Amino acid sequence: MAEHEHVRVAVIGSGFGGLGAAVRLRREGITDFVVLERASSVGGTWRDNSYPGCACDVPSHLYSFSFAPNPDWPRTFSGQEHIRAYLERVTDTFGLRPHLRFDSEVKRMTWDAERLRWRIETASGDLTADVVVSATGPLSDPKIPDIPGLDSFPGKVFHSARWDHDYDLTGKRVAMIGTGASAIQIVPSIQPKVGRLTLFQRTPAWVMPRVDREISGVERLLHRQLPFTTKARRGLLWGIRELQVQAFTKHPNELGFVEQLAKRNMARAIKDPALRAKLTPDYRIGCKRILLSSTYYPALAQPNVDVVASGLAEVRGSTVVAADGTETEVDAIIFGTGFHVTDMPIAERVVGADGRTLAEHWKDGMQALRGAAAAGFPNWMTIIGPNTGLGNSSMILMIESQLNYMADYLRQLDVLGGRAALDARPSAVHAWNRRVQDRMERTVWNTGGCTSWYLDASGRNTTIWPGTTSEFRRATRRVDLAEYQVLRPAAGTAPDETAPGSSAKKTQEAAA
């Protein structure tokens, strides 16, 4: 990358959000952009998570872009390798390769008030951009808890999102830490080969059967020959999930029936009453993400598996010690402990108009106007921002809604003409966040009696969207200029010169 390159738009990350933004930019006629990727290939979380059994828990035809349908999904719930291959195809189909900058991890982004642009420092050189679209995603930076003695463990340690494929688990004594979406896929995948598997379960999960099957050649041929059938299949999957939303957001007590189905799923595989008691949650289903697996419980019932109903508290040499005092000798520790979701590391690298980082602005909780724009960070927007997550449907739907908002944001800048920037008004951000949090109060995620990764350190739900995907689509269809301050260069500022110490003048302009 040439030093001091300038582009109209810099996209950060090349997962679904980043590639989707790149496609949308090209479809809007914008080609002056780059996609900055810290790794050496595209794929985001579907590149990083390559652990055994990794697959999506959303049906394939819904977990794909509406503008890039794939008639050849091999299974109803496709695996990591198929999703990653899909993203590679999207990259090629839409001509995104020339825009990609691999091995270009963003070190720092600083708002230049004189030039109304972002200064971006990366591992491969510096550049500037009029607009930054941050698509790093909430599932990109693994979280490993601070366990006393872990540094002195003589065996192998890795996170599920950084799987060591060179390490042979055959015959090994393995500790699996966590019972989230990754762990329930890893456990049945490695159970047959390990010598002994000990699952450290701080909180049991609600697990429903995974109704997965191979998509037949006839179905795939039909989807190729008659594209409307793919669209109809996607629409049906979407509609079912839209109808489920009210139970999560307004009537959590209606989920009791679903709990009974989950308990039956467990009872079919787990015959030991003591083990069933360990695995039965004490919170309302849906409070944490409902997990899908038809192999997790059967794996836990195998003689080479132990379930410790307690979290990992300490490591003493090759001995792992649970919070309840249980001690186990192991050769390897695998962490399935999630990601930095409510404290995204990218926020520490973004410096806004007042010289403070986004992390400092968000120290009391993440909030962004319509999940995209943070006050004090002009011409910066995020894909999969605060309160845009889903508990029961496809994040691709939310990403595409945010891409609509991004496209109109850029159109508004064009309409304003000249050098201009949009800065979300604090009052608008607070009003939006207040409405979201008011709606959140009655949801299962807040009332279900659990502690989940949806909640930040203060117990506030800054992750989930408390409504349907169609509601969010309507809310992000257009940019309302009344929610923004329009920034113009200070009088006398030279077009291509920086005047240290001066600042941009904030003026409110009437929306066209």
TrEMBL record:
Name the UniProt record assigns to this protein: Baeyer-Villiger monooxygenase
Pfam families hit by this protein: FMO-like
GO MF annotation list: flavin adenine dinucleotide binding; N,N-dimethylaniline monooxygenase activity; NADP binding
Cofactor requirement: FAD
Region annotation (Disordered) ranges: 490-512
UniProt keyword annotations, A-Z: FAD, Flavoprotein, Monooxygenase, NADP, Oxidoreductase
Reported function: Catalyzes a Baeyer-Villiger oxidation reaction, i.e. the insertion of an oxygen atom into a carbon-carbon bond adjacent to a carbonyl, which converts ketones to esters or lactones using NADPH and/or NADH as an electron donor. Thus, can convert bicyclo[3.2.0]hept-2-en-6-one into the oxidative lactone products 2-oxabicyclo[3.3.0]oct-6-en-3-one and 3-oxabicyclo[3.3.0]oct-6-en-2-one. Is also able to catalyze the sulfoxidation of methyl phenyl sulfide (thioanisole).
Similarity field: Belongs to the FAD-binding monooxygenase family.
